[in-house]
Every structure is written in C-alpha cells, then in structure tokens.
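Ticket opened by: R.M.
Priority: normal
Category: complex prediction / small molecule

The reporter submitted a protein together with KG4 and asked that the result be attached to this ticket for the collaborator who will pick it up next week. Submitted input follows.
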Amino acid sequence: MSATILGIESSCDDTSAAVIRDGVLLSNVIASQAVHEAYGGVVPELASRAHQQNIIPVVSEAIKRAGIDKSELDAIAFTRGPGLMGSLLVGTSFAKGLAASLGIPMVEINHLQAHVLAHFIKESPDDNHAPSFPFLCLLVSGGNSQIIQVNAYDDMKVIGQTIDDAAGEAFDKCAKVMGLGYPGGPVVNRLANEGNPKAFSFSKPHIAGYNYSFSGLKTSFLYTLRDELAKDADFIEKNKKDLCASLQATVIDILMSKLRMAAKDLHIKEVAVAGGVSANSGLRDAFIEHGKKYGWKVHIPKFSFTTDNAAMVAITGYYKYLDKQFCPMDAAPFSRVQL
Ligand code: KG4
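Result attached by the on-call engineer:
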C-alpha cells in the first residue's frame, strides 16, 4: 500500500514538517527559534508564539519541497507528547485543522518513539541501513537519558533511565555556569576537541542496574569551579577547554558503561544512539570504538536527524498508518508520557 505522510513536530523549540512516501523522505523543513538564546534556555510562552508564526510557512515549504500537492497526503502525523504544552498545542491544533479540511486521518506520535525510529528514515528507495530487531537504543537529549530495548516498531521497553538530570542537561548546566551560552552541548563539544579529557576528574554515579544519574557530576563540576575560582578568578577562562574535555569524557563514560552492561546481559549486539546529544562527536567516536571492540553493529544517525525534526515523526506515522493506528479528533497533547 502506498502511503504519503506529513509529519509535524512542535514539542519544544523547533517547528518542523516533513513528507515521507513509502518510508522514503521527500522533504524535511526545520525552523529553529533563536529567540531563546538571550534567556539561557527555552521560554515556553515565546516558543508557542514562534511555533504559531512558523507552522504555516514550514508546512507549506515541506509540501512544496516534496514536490507534491496536499491532496496527495494520506495522513498527518503529529507529536502529541512529551514536550511543552503550549508548543504541542500549536502542532496538534494545526494537524487537526489540516486533517479535517483534507478529510484524512491523524496519527499521534510519541516524541521519544520517533527519536528511536529516526533510524528507519530512508533517503532513497534502496537505502537499507536500518537496524534489525531487537536492538538497544541509547536515547540522549536535553530531557532524557534512556536505554531502550527495541523489539519492533511498536514494542519498546525502557530498561534504564536517568533518575535526575539528563545527559544534555549536564552539558547545558555546566556550560551555563562557565558562561558558554545556551544550548551548551555543542559549545562544550567544540571546546572539548581542543582540551585534555584527563585534566580534571569528576565524580561518577554508583547507581544499580541500567539507570543513570548526572546530578552528582554536575555538583562535583560546580565544586571544582568554586574551589579553583577562590584561588584564581580567571580559572574558567584559562581552563575551559580542559574543563569541557573532562566533562564530556565523564558524561560519555557514564553513558557507555551502562550501555555495555545492558548489551552484555541481554546478548544484543545491535546498538543505536538517538536524540540531540547523539550529535556529540566524542559520543559518536565512542560508539564506533565500542563497535570495533565488542563486535557491535552500531547505528549513528545523520546530524539532521539527531535534534528534533519532523522526518522522525513522519516515519513513525508511516508505520502506525500501515497498522491503521489512527487517533480521534479530540486527542489532546501530553506534556509527560512514557514510551
Ligand atoms: O533532542 P534534543 O534536540 O531536544 C531536547 O531534548 O529538547 O536535545 C537537545 C540537547 C541539548 O541538551 C543540547 O545541549 C544537546 O542536545 N546537544 C549536544 C550536542 N548537540 C546538541 N550535546 C553535546 N554535544 C553536542 N554536539
């Protein structure tokens, strides 16, 4: 059955729309919101207003770039949650209006499931890079750090997750106290490439099972800054590359040690990474090294599919559409939702 799906993503601060036909990506348009930079974090009210401004031009552009007419769409997939309520409301309401006017069904999408299924986006009909089931997916973003056992498109089990901060939050918060701006992850990554990862040692958690914790690392980072700044007011400026390299190495070490444990216990050698933090070059390198060392088949997403994008919403919508998993017109967004 041929299916052309429009995906709409508006869960946080990126407005995105994408068109997928039979699993192959035809377009993926993303409007990011620079308005939050001045505040050092996403301001929910400003995010919803920016989504309202962006949604029509972004969806129109996605349909235009796909080279189709909107009458060719078979369904509209939209992110229902988790995310910021006001932001989700814009995408959800728009999806409802467009679906009603075109007389086509709607498919609700869990944002976390979409991050995992980003690995199934094909960029051409003969693109066959997708993982095979079962595989493990490390989902690391600004709000989540999870190890997910993926048994099928619609059968995912969270086997480990953070009990406090997420990995991206650890990067963002430590970057903030160093005055590196928001979001901090990409800046830390850039500086870390020129620093010594062994210059500082920060504490690592001792949590049972496959769960993560990053708040201890954050506290130990802050204590180091406090102690050193008391001796030298220019400490951060002089050491920021080494601080970033050591912070990044610690985050990667924490992430990979639990993933190694899960892969070993569950005898799964197919391992993927997803979410905004998977753009981190150190983490990507660690995946490649683990692949070589432990015989894992590793799956690392293209940069454009790491952060929030509608292509991953459309591909998830495509599989749910094939399964006829439609949602009613009164579906309301969820700010918090499990996989
Ligand atoms: O999945 P994502 O785009 O969205 C949310 O969770 O909202 O992830 C954003 C997170 C932020 O914490 C950002 O700092 C982090 O991904 N990030 C990175 C890099 N690029 C983005 N962290 C480390 N290194 C990067 N290169």
